[in-house]
What we know:
mainly beta, Tachylectin-2, Chain A, five-stranded antiparallel β-sheet, four-stranded antiparallel β-sheet, 2 helices, disordered N terminus
Amino acid sequence: MAVNEPHQQKCPQAVQEPVYRSMNIWQRWRQRRLRRACRKADKLENRGWLDQWFLLVGLCSSDVRSAPRPETMQPIYPPDQAFWADPFVWMRDGRRFIFFEELPFATQKGHISALELDDQARPIGEAFPVIEEPYHLSYPFLFEFGGDLYMMPEKQSTNRLDLYRCTAFPHSWSRELTLIEGMPIVDANLFEHEGRWWLLCGSKQQRSSFNETLFAFFADHPLSQNWTPHLHNPLVRDFRRARPGGRVFRDDAGRLLRPSQDCVRRYGYGLGISEVTLLSTSGFQERPIWYASGEDLGGWRAMHHMDWHAGIMVMDAQRLLPAQDK
């Protein structure tokens, strides 16, 4: 498959760099300088406007999910007083639901909500909350193990990663155990690879930020409370492709694929997919195979997440609303 290279970023002093496993100090300095210029331009251009994430959904066969077409998907918009982001889709007992972060602008504290879909991936009824905590929740990663369905939502302000088990699909969830504690974690993904369970996520270390790091941990069981950090953490340190952007998955050819965010222009500006060609306790390599920005595909301000399950693809994108609608 041909590689879709990231296009020239449309902001002051844009620079195109080759893709590296990690960047040297000089390259990181140039990238941070570009990001500062972009943030300054955004601040001026977006006065009087509000960023709102919304959902994209559509039917998608497994053979094309490694090169999604978000511009052909159906948007699902939240109320103007909130945003919906980080969608994951799951089907159980013949019913299909999207689980996502819902963040009311008035509180700036997210919770996990769900929305039912019909067999054509069209919404049924209204969204409803399924997990609410005193702190912010997002990124409701879902996986099944031993016949149970689990959710691993992001709660980075608590410096831990907790696992919830579904007790009555889709409404009821019980907090079961803490996988990792003592460090802030964002956008965590679990998957099995070559006899081990792997956890990939973003985090902070020294002067790095969530938006430029990829960390890995491994264990012999997905419900383990003893996760070993990878020898070379962070595996990637790059605003263009480090932070996770959805579920790690295998395509029909057996390739291990990792969605990631492009956060150079702004947080979640674009979405890429890389093939992980090496993942072991002592090594990591990947190569990009697909990339798109929200701006180029749908005219959206950003696009930073994808998930696929049972023939349904879900993504998110961002638009601007007049700030007085907040």
